[in-house]
Fold this protein.
Amino acid sequence: MIDVAGRIEAQLQTLSLPATAKLVLAYSGGVDSEVLAHGLSLYAKRHPQRQVLLVHVHHGLSANAEAWTRHCQASADAYGLTLKVQRVKVRQGPRLSLEAEARSARYLAILALMQTGDLLLTAHHEDDQLETILLALKRGQGPKGLAAMGARQPLDGDKWQLRPLLDVSREQIEAYAQRHHLAHIEDESNADDKFDRNFLRLEIIPRLKARWGAIASTASRSAALCAEQQAVIDEEVSKRLPEWIDEAVPHGGSALRLRGFESLSPAWQALLLRGYIDRLGLKPPSQLQLEQIRRQLLHAREDARVEIRVSGLVVRRFQTQAYISAATEEAPASQRALTSAEMAELLAGKTLQLPLANACGLRLCLTDTGPRLRLPAAGEPVTVRFNQGGSLRCHPQQRAKGRELKKLWQEFGIPPWKRAGWPLLFYGDKPVAAVGLWLEKSAVCAADESGLSCVLEDGPL
């Protein structure tokens, strides 16, 4: 008979937990989470100083959802544990996976109740691991996908997810529930084989087990080997990737340097591309999509404007760098004029923070040091403008001669897709600064005069 409380304690002993860390159980009321809730209640009695919380997510997808909530409350009361019910609305639509959307809603609801250092316990077991491996094979995933679930994994940056039952069979869990007379709910959707996991659970895994009784445990060993190999790959990628990242791009953020990238093997190119996407916190594309990205970045014509949109990503090439970001709809930036009250505050020495598009801001302040603009003349309006024509002539103070704006964008390395949203400061109808890039030579104040400092801040454009 498995010792669930002992398993929880053994896993927690491998972590250095602050005294305030809370144990949060994703509690559906099904047999798996019921067994884990029972074991957690025994652990809580041995360690009364540790905070424990059961979280039941009410998805609103079943006519029995309210009954399940009542069951979970009654069981929590019997265990002497606190229960929190989170009600969520699951997105549904023709192109949405109900399984995936429900899972996402569930995790977000649970994470909302967790603080830094808290641990999430889930009741995944050996058969769940086999399902995950089979789904990874179906999707054509590599070692990272085939590594499936870990018994301990980082969660949302500063939290952990623990799976104390991951190497326990479904039969052992059901035997534990019978031994301790645990009542549990039966979700009728588990019998619907239109869902991939249910199809595997109902149709495929029983036949695999009938032929190879140890298939779940041997597949778990394969997953562990894949996890070891992936850890080595991740370690090597983390060592090599920094030399290919340019953090000093003039518009903030970072870019992947492509000069010399073609000298690497295609396998390493793909690994570094995927590693960079992961570093940005973006969802990785499929293998076929990654290959499309790799080929276009490296083999398109020198003057080609490369822009690839796949899996919620936008991949662009400019000069010898690749820029990767999430595909989001951004509202066009609009002109912003400083009011007379703002000008009065500015000239009185107050710093102005002006919010701009794309999570950026413009900071203006009066200063006697550093690069600064002359003060605007009386009646000379001050405006922040965007999307100015490329024929506009500007004369950066560091240049001997002026040039057209479109040439200066190229000179300063500003990619085409960033130019329309770049803030230009005007006095009247004359440009006086491309914020964060240059001050106009004719608008720079004398060395012994006070002037305006204009700084781009709060993130990349």
